[in-house]
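Quick one: structure for this chain?
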Amino acid sequence: MDGLMSIPVLYESHCHTPLCKHAAGAPGEYAAIAEIRGLKGVIITCHCPLPDGFSSNVRMTPEQFETYVEMVALAREAWAGRVDIRLGLESDYYPGVEPWLESLHARAPLHHVLGSVHFQVEDYRLLHDPGTAFGYQQVYYDHLAQAAETGLYDTLAHPDLIKNDVPEEWDFARIQPFIERSLDRIAATGVAMELNTSGLNKSLPEMNPGPAQLALMQERGIPVVLGADAHHPKRVAAQYTEAMHLLQDAGYESVSLFLDRQREEIPLPAALASLRPVS
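Got it. Here's what it folds into:
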C-alpha cells in the first residue's frame, strides 16, 4: 500500500483563472495545491469566450483567449517535472453556438473540453426558460443531451446543476423520466459526465450529480470524470475522497480523466490511495 500511495495518478480536471472575472489564483497556485494533495496534474478549464457578448460578465473576452493559452503554457513550463499543467476549456452549450465553439476549440491544443449548460446565465435564461421550474428542468436535460450529440465535448460538467435553480421545485421522481431519456442519448455518444464536488456548497448541498442520477449513469456505462470546479486554489481536489466513495457506492470501479482529448481510466483503489490527507 505504501508504494501505491507514492504514485500520483489523479488530475484536477475542472479549475479556473481570474480571466473569468469570478475566480482567484494563477495556474501555478492551483498546481501548488495539487502537489500538496498528491495529484499528478491540473487541467485548467476556464470559461470560454462566447460570441456577441453572450454572458460576457463571467468569462474571458474573445481577445483574451490567446492570453489564456499563454498563461497556461508559461505555468506548464514553470512546473515541469513537478505538476503536469494542461490546457483545457469549459465551453457553454446552447443551441446555435456550435460553429463558434468548433472554431474556438481548433485554435489551441486542448486536453479536456467540458460542456456546460449554465441555466443561471441571464442571456441563456431569456432564450430558453419556458416560465416554469419543471419546464426549465426539462429544457436543461434536453440541452445536456444535445451538447453530447454535437461531438464538441469530452465531459458534461455538473450535470444536474439545474436542481439548484428553484430547490423547492426539485422532485427527482418527477423529473427522472426526462433524466433517463437524456442519459440514454448521452450514453450513445460515449461522452463522459462529471462528478462535481462543488455541489456540496450549493442550495441543495450534494455533489453534482447526486447519488440517484449517478446510479442511472452507472447503469448506462457512462464514464465519470472528477472535478472540484475550483475557482480558488484551496478548492483543488476538494472532497475527492468522498466523491470516489460515492462512485464506488454507485457501482463504478474506475474514474476517468482526459489528456490530449483521450479518455484514460484509473481503478478507484489506486486513485483513492494516491491522495494525500489534507491537514
